[in-house]
Amino acid sequence: MHILHITGWYPNHLKPFETPFIERHVRALDPLCTNTVWHIDVRRGARWSLHRRSLRADRTLVLTTPLRRWLLMEGLATALVLWAWFTRARGMRCDVINFHIPYPNCARLGLLRRLMRRPMVITEHWSIYRLGFKSGARGLDRIRRIFHQGVPLIVVSRALADDILGFAGPPHPPVHLVANAVDTALFSPDGGAREPGRFFAIATWRYPKRPVLLVEAIALLRARGRDARLRIAGAGDEMPAIREAIARCGMQGHVTLIGQAAPEAAAQEMRRAHALLHASDYETFSAVCAEALCCGTPVVASHVGGIREYLTPVLGTPVAENSAEAWAEALDRDWDRLLALEADALARAMRPLVDARSVAERYMAVLRSTCGTSPEGPTRARP
Asked: How much is the average pLDDT of 181-207?
């Protein structure tokens, strides 16, 4: 099978660390099919520009525009998708088109289906549906209609499925759960010892993440007499607020900002940590929590969204309240228990859900069903 992935989010030269979890889904499929990736996106910016440089996608069309009206941006996105389709290499085979992050690229999904004439699947990771796109505009009906056309929907958690179906309303598409993929060869225990009091956090620091809360919780832990330190990796809009919190709480010697971390460096940080800390108002899954568990590192995380579907006290500490006081109390209470959790046991518990091979097999089952093929070959003609 040949899968054409059209995604609005993908690592690119403007944002090299953008949404790696989408790339991991695609790369997990590599042993089982042939993948072609088109990164097509319309983004708001100060001026018009078209970026075509590609880091890892086979084709990139990222259009930046000063336009603010949703309808116009949707039209531009549809035009880019169709332009890419009709200017593709004539010999390119395509059995299924997999749209990742469907809005705005799929705002005219009915038109795309008529003109592209291939089976389609939607894969979604975005948490915005829980917030109703932060809008009450009538244009939301155009987004809802994306999910009313019977195109199979792949989501990373039941929480995200409930968000999308609640937002869109009936008729509901077929829904399939496929977790985020983790490279368990890289994110795995190494037999080393975790360092007491050394905590680690990594994310793209923007809402709904709560990094300031983590800095404040570390300060409260130290006030309780715990030798707590925090190492923070990543970048994002919240970085100025993180720096301000470090200064305000007097944590300059105890909270370290290490910048962007490559996967190898992140895995090493996780293995050495007392626990991974992840405070957020919502998560559709949280790939970093899964990676830490695969490294054999317990996770302390907000008890929200998709995290609730796998994080139990056996694997770490779910925190019910997002306040610095509640986090400090939970870390103080579970300090010794977290250190005692056995690395190999944590990895064994998490690996079946997120191992790239098992994720790929579940993903391929959906794709084969969509285009009417089996592992042995096609069962009906491609349109």
From this structure: 95
